[in-house]
Amino acid sequence: MDPLRRASRRVADSAWPLAQGTAAAVIAWTIAKYALDHDEPFFAPVAAVIALNATVGERGLNAVRLMQGVVVGIIVGELTLALLGGEPGSLALATFVAMTIAVALGGARITVAQAAVGAILTVAIGDAEAGYERFIDAVVGAGVALTFSQLLFSPEPVRLLRSAESAALADMGRGLELTADALERDDEELAEAAVSRLRDLRDQLVELGRTRRASSRVSRRSAAWRSQRAPVVRETENVGYLDLLGDSCLMLSRAALAAEGVDRQELARPTRALARALTALAGDPGDRLTRQATVERVLEVLRESVASGPPADPALAAVMGIRWVARDSLMFAGVEPQQAVDAVDEGTGEFDVPTPPPAPRVPFVSRLRRPSK
């Protein structure tokens, strides 16, 4: 993908959050300017934009952290101004103390930065009224941001998870596809690309873990989703199997590519079959029929693996990798762990995959919004 297309993709992916931030800024400024009659309500729109400038699922927490920093900064600034006046030394002291307190409260970057800004503006302007108005503006901006993030445009937690699952599964499928290509062509460059892609998958799984935590927070704290937590809990439990699956894919790739003295075509076929099963699953991981089809494909690979008999020593690790990928794929698709282990050992089994957790019903107020990615 060329740089222009990557830039266009980034803009397209960010267009909806940017539109929300712009609308929140205008609304916050209008409230502070006309409803509260503030002469220079610059911080209300600034606070709204900063609070919403976070990953979807963490914007409400961002707004709370912003308010923590503002409160700490203004209080420290006002006390410093009252005791020492608006001197350079006072500014340095207020900034340091405000940031230190913010770090003690948890140390989030936005909290520390807003504590410093609050203290600096309060002492530098030297006007107690300015500190009070800035605090009210921050409340307005954070309040608008919370209304957007927790009510009007609260992200759908199950949808967030499914999007992250799709990305991780697609990368696993692509890594195993490259592994199969390298085995068939005996190509060292493809082998290096395959292993590198699957190593990089760790970053994708870290992001999935972050999304998992964010989805749990959304379901607990958002007024729109608090009453519909059960599907989120079920899906977050299922996501844990992807960590195992990612490790198994990397193990399979490295073991298969390192195997010598064996027919690499014999390893390429099941590796490619698993790759295609994961790629198909990535298309719609929340669909029961898609998961059922994945289970059938994986069972076919296992049947062939068991039918071929015990692997030769050079291919033992690779065959074990194939079976581990199969096992973890079955568990993610909904097969009970012990049943998945038995299927791997015996190469048999018939499973009726349960229906995955449905996305919670969209609350009435959220029907006006575009679905979150």
Task: Tell me what you see in this structure.
By secondary structure, the protein is an all-alpha fold. It folds into two domains: 16-152, no CATH class; 157-346, Methane Monooxygenase Hydroxylase, Chain G, domain 1 (Up-down Bundle), CATH 1.20.58. Helices cover 77% and strands 0% of the residues. The protein contains 13 helices and no strands. Helix 1 crosses helix 2 (43-52) and helix 2 (43-52) packs parallel to helix 6 (128-152). The longest helix is centred in the middle third of the chain and has 34 residues, at 188-221. The protein is elongated.
Number of helices: 13
User: What is the C-alpha radius of gyration, as a whole number of Å?
Assistant: 27 Å
Number of strands: 0
Question: Mind telling me the CATH class of the largest domain?
Answer: Mainly Alpha
CATH topology of the largest domain: Methane Monooxygenase Hydroxylase, Chain G, domain 1
Briefly note the structural class of the backbone: mainly alpha
Number of structural domains: 2
Determine the fraction of residues in helical runs and give it as a percent range.
Answer: over 70%
Largest pleated sheet = none
Q: How far apart lie the N and C ends?
A: 22 Å
SSE arrangement, N to C: HHHHHHHHHHHHH
Residue stretches low in confidence (pLDDT < 50, at least 5 long) are 364-373
CATH architecture of the largest domain: Up-down Bundle
Mean pLDDT equals 82
Strand content: under 5%
Shape label: elongated
